C-alpha cells in the first residue's frame, strides 16, 4: 500500500532563470519556422552566458531559399525574447548581447526516417519513452507541489512586469514542501524562494516583505501556518542574475517542465523541438490521455507511458498505471485510450493541432496544468475524451 502521510517537495524556476532563457529562445525559433511552414523541422539548442547567446542545431523548410531568409531573423528573435523576459543588465542586455547563430539544415539521414514516403507512414523522429501523468490534487489535475511552485513564480513575474514590484529581477526559483495526510495535500511544511532583486541594499527580510503577500495569495487558504518554515533569499543578496550569474542551456529543467518529480520522466527535453519529435508530442499526448482518464473519474491518479522507435510510426507499447485508484482494470484503460486516439506522430499532431506556433509560451511555468487556449495553445490539456472513455471502458 502506498504511503498516506508524508512530505513531498517540488521546485520551479522563473522565465529569467538561465536555462529558461534558453528554452524560451529555442521555442521562439521553433515558432518562427512553424509560422512559415507548419511542417517545418526544427531542433534548436541555445546556450547563454555573460554577454553571449549561441544557438545551434538543425532546421528544415521545403523552400531552401526561405530557409536562408529565416536564418537571418534568428538574432532579432533572440533579442526580442531577452527583452520580454526583462534583462537589461550591464553584462546581459537585450540590446548588447552577442548572438551567434550556428543553426544548419536538417540531416538527410534523420529526415529519411521521419518523412512519409510512397506507401510508408511518417515515422517517429527518434526512439524513446514518454510519460504522462494526472492526479486529482488540484483542479488542473496536477500534483500540488509543482502546480503551486509554478503559481508563485508566475504571480511574481506578473507584478514585476506590470511595474507593481519594480525591485524584483527576472531570475527566481521557488520550492515547496507539501504535507500529505491520508494521501491528500493539506499544508505547506516549507517555502523556499530565491529571487533576483535590483536594489543592492535589500536584505533577505526586505525581499520576504515584498514577496510574501503574493505567495500567500496563490496558495490554498490554510496551507500556510505558524509552523511553515520560510527561506527567502537564504544566501543573502541576489543582484546578479540570469546568464551573467550562471550559464544556461536548453532542456536542463525537464522535471520542472513536467510533474516536479511526482511522476516518471522519459528523459527527453521539449523546448526547441518540432512536434515530429516524439520526445515532445508523445509526452504531450501521454499527459492528454492521463488527464482524460482522471477527469472521467476512472482513476484518481494515472500514469501513461508510450514508447517509439525512430522511423516507425506506431508506438511500440502503451502502458497505463492507475496506482491502485482505478475504477476499471488498467489493461482495459490501455485498450480504450489506444482506440480513441491515433498515436502515430502524425496522428498526435493532427488530433492536438500541434503544427502551429504555440510553443514559446510553454517555455516557463510548466508545459502541463495550463488552460487550453483559443488558438490551440495547450491543446493537450483538453478533457474532450471523457465521455468516449466512459463508454469504452
Automatic annotation (TrEMBL):
This is S-adenosylmethionine synthase. Residues 240-382 form the S-adenosylmethionine synthetase C-terminal domain. GO terms for cellular component: cytoplasm. K(+) binds at residue 45. Residues 106-116 are annotated as: Flexible loop. SUPFAM superfamilies: S-adenosylmethionine synthetase. Homotetramer; dimer of dimers. Mg(2+) binds at residue 19. Residues 5-108 form the S-adenosylmethionine synthetase N-terminal domain. Catalyzes the formation of S-adenosylmethionine (AdoMet) from methionine and ATP. The overall synthetic reaction is composed of two sequential steps, AdoMet formation and the subsequent tripolyphosphate hydrolysis which occurs prior to release of AdoMet from the enzyme. Its EC number is 2.5.1.6. It is an enzyme of class 2 (transferase). GO terms for biological process: one-carbon metabolic process; S-adenosylmethionine biosynthetic process. Binds 2 divalent ions per subunit. Binds 1 potassium ion per subunit. It is found in: Cytoplasm. Pathway: Amino-acid biosynthesis; S-adenosyl-L-methionine biosynthesis; S-adenosyl-L-methionine from L-methionine: step 1/1. Its cofactor is Mg(2+); K(+). It comes from Litoreibacter ascidiaceicola. GO terms for molecular function: ATP binding; magnesium ion binding; methionine adenosyltransferase activity. Keywords: ATP-binding, Cytoplasm, Magnesium, Metal-binding, Nucleotide-binding, One-carbon metabolism, Potassium, Transferase. L-methionine binds at residues 58, 106, 246, 277.
Amino acid at each position: 500500500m502506498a504511503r498516506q502521510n508524508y512530505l513531498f517537495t517540488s521546485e520551479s524556476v522563473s522565465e529569467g532563470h538561465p536555462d529558461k532563457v534558453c528554452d524560451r529562445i529555442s521555442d521562439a525559433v521553433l515558432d518562427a519556422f512553424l509560422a512559415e511552414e507548419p511542417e517545418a523541422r526544427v531542433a534548436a539548442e541555445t546556450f547563454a552566458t555573460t554577454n553571449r547567446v549561441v544557438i545551434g542545431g538543425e532546421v528544415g523548410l521545403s523552400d531552401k531559399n526561405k530557409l536562408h531568409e529565416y536564418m537571418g531573423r534568428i538574432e532579432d528573435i533572440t533579442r526580442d525574447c531577452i527583452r520580454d523576459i526583462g534583462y537589461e543588465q550591464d553584462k546581459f542586455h537585450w540590446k548588447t548581447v552577442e548572438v551567434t547563430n550556428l543553426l544548419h539544415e536538417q540531416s538527410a539521414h534523420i529526415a529519411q526516417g521521419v518523412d512519409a514516403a510512397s506507401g510508408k507512414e511518417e515515422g517517429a523522429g527518434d526512439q524513446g519513452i514518454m510519460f504522462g501523468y494526472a492526479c486529482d490534487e488540484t483542479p488542473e489535475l496536477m500534483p500540488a507541489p509543482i502546480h503551486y511552485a509554478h503559481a508563485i513564480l508566475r504571480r511574481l513575474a506578473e507584478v514585476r512586469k506590470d511595474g507593481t514590484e519594480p525591485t524584483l529581477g527576472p531570475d527566481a526559483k521557488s520550492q515547496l514542501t507539501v504535507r500529505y495526510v491520508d494521501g491528500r495535500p493539506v499544508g505547506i511544511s516549507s517555502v523556499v524562494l530565491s529571487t533576483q532583486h535590483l536594489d543592492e541594499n535589500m536584505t533577505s527580510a526586505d525581499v520576504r516583505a515584498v514577496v510574501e503577500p503574493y505567495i500567500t495569495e496563490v496558495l490554498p487558504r490554510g496551507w500556510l501556518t505558524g509552523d511553515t518554515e520560510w527561506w527567502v533569499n537564504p544566501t543573502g543578496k541576489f543582484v546578479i542574475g540570469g546568464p551573467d550569474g550562471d550559464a544556461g542551456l536548453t532542456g536542463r529543467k525537464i522535471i520542472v517542465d513536467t510533474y516536479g518529480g511526482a511522476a516518471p520522466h522519459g528523459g527527453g527535453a521539449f523546448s526547441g523541438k518540432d512536434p515530429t519529435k516524439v520526445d515532445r508530442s508523445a509526452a504531450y499526448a501521454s499527459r492528454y490521455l492521463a488527464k482524460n482518464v482522471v477527469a472521467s473519474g476512472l482513476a484518481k491518479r494515472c500514469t501513461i507511458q508510450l514508447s517509439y522507435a525512430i522511423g516507425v510510426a506506431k508506438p511500440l507499447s502503451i502502458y497505463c498505471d492507475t496506482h491502485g485508484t482505478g475504477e476499471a482494470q488498467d489493461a482495459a484503460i490501455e485498450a480504450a485510450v489506444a482506440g480513441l486516439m491515433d498515436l502515430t506522430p502524425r496522428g498526435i499532431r493532427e488530433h492536438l493541432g500541434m503544427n502551429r506556433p504555440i510553443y514559446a509560451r510553454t517555455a516557463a511555468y510548466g508545459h502541463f496544468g495550463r488552460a487550453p487556449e483559443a488558438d490551440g495553445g495547450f491543446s493537450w490539456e483538453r478533457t474532450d475524451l471523457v465521455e468516449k472513455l466512459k463508454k469504452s471502458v
